[in-house]
């Protein structure tokens, strides 16, 4: 179970990046919480971990993993277990409010691929993911969130939509969902899928199943959209976020992701405040 001393994640946060350490250390910032990439802090010391331990005194922390590759069919038990034990130590040290990973694979025949690669959306992959998520939650003794991912291929063996896959994964394992709205839009353009329908499916899940929302920028490469996290949130993604605010009937913490061409911190804070304002507007309209 989650430690009682962990601070709950609420409101609007930003990803903590090393170029902004000094901003956070020097003065309070208008972010309700911070999210870090787990693998950057899994060592037993160093400056990054020191900064995180200082900032956790003032900001709730979310651990967002990018390296576990839960859906890797050939991943060794030893490799998965080593990663989980490192994550468990970090959780004990930091006591985060949320812990998350991705619906993806990243290893084959003992080779690690540094990417979030898409799974076939079929029952065989669902069974594997359920086994891996069950194991992860058992080792960590807490619920985890699984994030929908941006993809550039779909498989002929797909048997369901990504949202239906995620909904069934949550039902079978009790995991929560990290809903990345930019990824929904990227997949809508790349594959002709309905982001609106996906949001409807997520919104109709039991209360609090969606435990976090991500917003980010993407790159138009002509033949497809690329989820590069290197720009402000696009207008079409803001429209989908407004729809999510209208349909999801409970408060969900929201994160602004920005991982490439990282600007000054005030730009991320400005995006978080825009999300805050749009959410407030939807609440006001709902009450009216």
UniProtKB/TrEMBL annotation:
Gene3D superfamilies: Divalent-metal-dependent TIM barrel enzymes
Pfam families: MbnB_TglH_ChrH
NCBIfam families linked: PRK05409.1
The protein's name in its UniProt record: DUF692 domain-containing protein
Species whose genome carries this gene: Undibacterium rugosum
